[in-house]
Structures are given as structure tokens and as C-alpha cells.
Amino acid sequence: MIDPVTAQDRCAKLLDAAKRHGATRADAVASASSSESVSVRLRKLEDVERSESEEISLRVFVGRRSASISTSDFSAAAFEELAERAAAMAGAAPEDPYAGIAEPELLARAPFPDLELEDTSEPGPSSLRAMAEETEDAARAVGGVTNSEGGSASFGRSVAVLVTSSGFVGGYGATSHSLSASVIAGEGGNMQRDYAYRTMRFAEDLPPPAEIGQRAGTRAVARLGPGGLASGPMPVVFDPRVGTSLIGHLLGAISGTAIARGSSFLLGRLEDELFPQNLRILDNPHRLRGLRSRPFDGEGLPTLPRALVEGGKLTGWLTNLSAARQLGITPTGHAARGGSGAPGISATNVHLEAGTASRADLIADITEGVLVTELSGQGVNPVTGDYSRGASGFRIVNGEVAGPVAEFTIAGNLLSMMAALTAADDLEMHRAINVPTLRVDGMVVAGE
């Protein structure tokens, strides 16, 4: 796979070609990735996949007109053709008063922080198969598990490089190691499926395969024999693996693009106290070995840790350069690149800080409620904040988690849900978005 030095050289040559063909400004992003995965089912090899890709994307500006184009042909002739075509496309594009690349004074400067994103170890196919088998074996060994959808293990490596005509040059590599299992418990009309997985930058940070498998099996068996659930307002407790979606809705709503377009339920709410005062939500692009850690953003701006919510209030919007110019604010270093096209906006490693109560204490005073472990459907309106999703999980009766329940709906409005959030103390930091168990009072549950 391509190394960062070669990728930087390719980007520089492409920018030179763009300048020759009339571009006033330009940037180039080179990316490469390789991955290998092995899947097994019922102790038999199910699938072995190996993929490799390399691409370079060019974004050119002719005044305030821009165009983007990409290629996987790295020859000099292809670069000339690509640059010529991109400049012609830009010349025919409409003007965008907010378009442009970062001025030199805004750019991140080397040396960039070492965020420990790249593992030197690389498991081979035999090692991946052994881990996949161990993961599935542990899941199938749980009493009540009757079938398997398989276990898998994978490894990936990637390189990302950005070079701009205003003087930025930077790149970094990253790796990922993953384990997963999905199994079925029960028989006939009483079957339930569940899963477990984990992805980490370094192999040494993964839990043992047997732990992942056992978790998948235990979850599937716990769902057997679901009952009904009464309808009405009641406390809803979100397990961490689904509570992350609440933060995802928040991140979409504070995107500068959504704010500039007037399509966010948080528009005009910067000065409002929207959350409990003791609740903090943080964004940390510099977390060592983080799944979304990055030393600079997709436009070459520095990235910095920051609070997103503090003292009950939002601290501001997340922006790329275009959104910051539209809103008349300082860019926040949240530009994200994904191949060709203009940069989007993305948070990095986000977490909601742990509370002081245990999960048991969080539910101890709930007479009738529900613990949600799975969500389905997309019933969330980003403009109004109205929230309605299908769910499954477990009843909470007199402060205790009782039997499983399925096929019910939870509904509310994200503004009132945010104001009612209470966090437990069981935060674990292994996802891109991490939350402890969360409780939201006053939601409407539609069951039987």
C-alpha cells in the first residue's frame, strides 16, 4: 500500500497540473486502504475477503467557482487530463461566495501530534480465522443458543494525505482490528437474534474473542420469550449501545451546515439552557488510539479538544470553512473529507461524561419503565426534533430489570429529552461516540 511520502508527492504533482490549467487555488486528497476479513459459521469457513484501493481527489477553484474530481490512475498523463477537466468544470460551475480553501494563517503546523493510530502488528488469514472461530465458539457455548449467523475477525490499514495550494502538507496512517459474532437463541416461533462486536486501533486493546462471543450469546438468550408492554408515559432507560444514537442526533443538529440552512431544531438555541447543568459532552480529536482521532481536519485546520455541552448550554456550532463563512464565525476544525466533493462536517471522538449513580441506582425508583437495548426505524425529524422509533429491550418493574419486551415504540421530542437526561456511572470508552446508561423521564411508550 502507498506510503504517506509517495501520497504527498502525488498530491503536489496534481496541484501543479491544476495550476497549469488555470486553477487559482486547489487542494488534493490522497487516500489508500487495505483490509482483510475472515468469517466462519458453525466452525466452517464462510468467507475470506481481501480488498485494496488507492485514490486521489482534486478540488480546484477558478475564482469562487469550484469542481471536484477523482481518479485511481496516477500517471502523469492522467494527472494532466484530470486537472484540465476539473478546471473546465469549475469554470462552468455557479459561483459560491463561501467556497475556498484555508488561508495560510489558519492552517495546522507540523509537527503534528502522534495520536497512536497505527499498529505495527498485522494478523494473517490463519490468525484471523482462529479468532473468528474462537469468537463464534464462545457464543455457541452459551446455553440456549441454537444457531449461528457467524463469527468474524478483520484487520484494516489506511493512509490519508492532504496538500493544499496555500501551503498545507500533512498525512497519517491508521489501523483497525475488529471481532464480531451474531447468534440465534431458541427454536421455532421463539427465536431471538443478537450480536456483539468491538473495533480498536491496536490488537492489544481488543477484548479476548471469547468475551465478545459470550456477550453475543448471552444477549440473544436474554431476549427469549418477549412479552408485551403497556402504553403510556414512563421513564425510558437507554443502554449505552443505543444511547449513542441520541448524541448522534445532537451532532447533526449542531452542524454548521444545518444551522446555515435553517434545518436544525437547535436553531436559535445557543443561549438556552437545554441540558441539566451537571451534564457535559466532550469532543476530543486527540484521544490516543481513538477511532475518530485526527491531527488536522479535512481542510488542514488544527483540531482541538472542546466541550460541546457545558453548564447546560451548547458551546457553539461545528463548522468547516464554508459553514463558518456563512455563519460569520471562526472555523472549528471539523471539516471531513470522504473522496471527491466539498468537505462535510464531522465530530471526532465524542463522549457524554459519566454520572455518579450506578445503573442499578439509576433505575431503583422506577415503578414501571423500560430499558431499551435495540432501536429500529428512522422516525426523527431534524427540523422539529420530534422523535419516534421502534424499540425492544426489557421491562423495569419496581426498580428491577424484568423480562424482555419487543415491538414497542418510544416517542418524545429531542429538546425535552435532552433536558431530562440523567447519566449513570458506567461509561466505557471504546466507540467513536461513548455514553453511559442514560435515563429519560416522561417519554411516551406505545406497546400493546
Taking pLDDT < 50 over at least 5 consecutive residues as the criterion, the unreliable ranges are: none
How many angstroms separate the termini? Answer: 55 Å
Q: Tell me the Rg in angstroms.
A: 24 Å
What order do the strands of the largest sheet run in, or round the barrel if closed? 3-2-1-4-5-6
SS-based class? alpha+beta
GO biological process, one term: proteolysis
GO molecular function: metallopeptidase activity
GO cellular component, one term: cytosol
Protein name: TldD/PmbA family protein
Description of the structure:
The chain is α+β, with helices and mostly antiparallel strands and 448 residues long. It folds into three domains: 97 residues, 2-Layer Sandwich (PmbA/TldD fold); 85 residues, PmbA/TldD fold; 223 residues, no CATH class. The protein is built from nine helices and 19 strands. β2 and β3 form a beta hairpin. α3 runs parallel beside α4. The termini are far apart.
Keywords summarizing the entry:
448 residues; alpha+beta; PmbA/TldD fold; 3 domains; five-stranded mixed barrel; TldD/PmbA_N
Strands, helices and their partners?
Blueprint (H helix, E strand, L loop, with lengths): L3 H17 L4 E17 L2 E19 L2 E7 L4 H17 L32 H16 L4 E20 L4 E19 L2 E11 L8 H14 L9 E7 L1 H14 L2 H6 L19 E3 L22 E5 L2 E2 L6 H7 L7 E2 L7 E2 L4 E3 L6 H5 L4 E9 L9 E12 L2 E14 H6 L1 E3 L9 E2 L3 E9 L2
Parallel strand pairs: 7-14, 13-18
Antiparallel strand pairs: 1-2, 1-4, 2-3, 4-5, 5-6, 7-19, 8-9, 8-13, 9-10, 11-12, 14-15, 15-16, 16-19, 17-19
Helix pairs in contact: 1-2, 3-4
